UniProtKB/TrEMBL annotation:
SUPFAM superfamilies in the cross-refs: Aspartate/glutamate racemase
Keywords: Isomerase
Keyword Flavoprotein: no
Organism (species): Actinomycetospora atypica
Claim: Transmembrane helix is one of the keywords in the record: no
Gene3D superfamilies cross-referenced by the UniProt entry: 3.40.50.1860
Xref: PROSITE patterns: ASP_GLU_RACEMASE_1, ASP_GLU_RACEMASE_2
The organism's place on the tree of life at top rank: Bacteria
Pfam families according to UniProt: Asp_Glu_race
Protein name: Glutamate racemase
Length: 281
């Protein structure tokens, strides 16, 4: 394993096949702008969802090794598919030298509210035992309604406004009228939380991006310091350094990350304004 860098600044790597990492990256940039962020995306291999589990593990581990070689002090995986399939082997290889922080949909806090809620997710995640187990663990019987959102993640990835509107509208029509909350069960969905909130007036959106960012800082022993001097943001696309894709810059948080300065809280997806404590995921 490569030696740790002599550079005293903190370097945090985020791993996802595409734009689902942006909300978590935005929170990290807001909370600790002095942490250098490596945004490692995989446009050549995307989407990871639907791939065989062995392929996902090998691909994600390869990206994680690249992150370590680049000097990552922590590796964050803001991707449900990668977390479910590769988090255990990643931790076995990388910890305890550096923390690995995964992503879990915010089903626990939604269930804790004690009111009916829906879980918006991709079709694959909706049908998965992973989601079913989380609902069974944290929600009361009948409290949660799964709502598959065909095409929404792809539309968000492409920054296609018309396709986003169509997918959000279809999912809203399949969401029961009595729900008080909606869990954004795909890391892409917070990027269009404004559109989702408009389609579901009065419904609280639950998202884990802020909590994942907060967990990463805790694992590094860091407290929030939003006024710190900004460090760099580096984008790596399937192994090669590049600019942040134009479709990422179409979102306010992506444009802010590309600009290289601080990220104001007002630019972050509005589902969760304060990152709360989470269990070690």
């Amino acid at each position: 394993m490569p030696a740790r860098r002599a550079d005293p600044s903190i370097r945090i790597a985020l791993i996802d096949s595409g734009l689902g990492m942006l909300p978590t990256a935005g929170w990290l940039r807001h909370l600790r702008p002095d942490a250098h962020l490596d945004l490692l995306m995989d446009p050549v291999g995307m989407p990871w969802g639907g791939r065989p589990a062995d392929w996902i593990v090998e691909r994600v581990l390869g990206v994680a090794r690249l992150a370590v070689a680049r000097g990552a002090d922590a590796v964050v995986v803001p991707c449900n598919t990668a977390s479910v399939n590769a988090l255990v082997p990643m931790r076995a290889e990388l910890e305890p030298d550096r923390p690995v922080v995964g992503t879990v949909p915010a089903i626990k806090p939604a269930a804790a509210a004690g009111e009916p809620f829906a879980v918006w997710a991709t079709e694959g995640t909706t049908a998965s035992t992973y989601q079913a187990d989380l609902v069974a663990l944290f929600a009361a019987p009948g409290q949660a309604t799964p709502v598959p959102c065909p095409g929404l993640a792809d539309a968000v990835e492409a920054a296609d406004a018309d396709a986003i509107a169509a997918a959000v509208g279809a999912a809203a029509r399949h969401t029961p009228d009595d729900v008080a909350g909606v869990v954004l069960g795909c890391t892409h969905y917070p990027l269009v939380s404004t559109e989702i909130a408009a389609a579901l007036p009065g419904v609280r959106l639950h998202d884990s991006a802020g909590a994942v960012a907060g967990q990463a800082l805790r694992r590094l022993g860091l407290c929030p310091a939003p006024g710190a001097e900004p460090a760099g943001v580096t984008v790596v696309l399937s192994g090669d350094e590049a600019d942040l894709p134009a479709r990422a810059r179409a979102y306010p948080v992506g444009a802010a990350l590309a600009a290289g300065g601080r990220v104001d809280a007002a630019l972050l997806p509005p589902a969760v304004r304060e990152p709360g404590r989470v269990s070690r995921v």
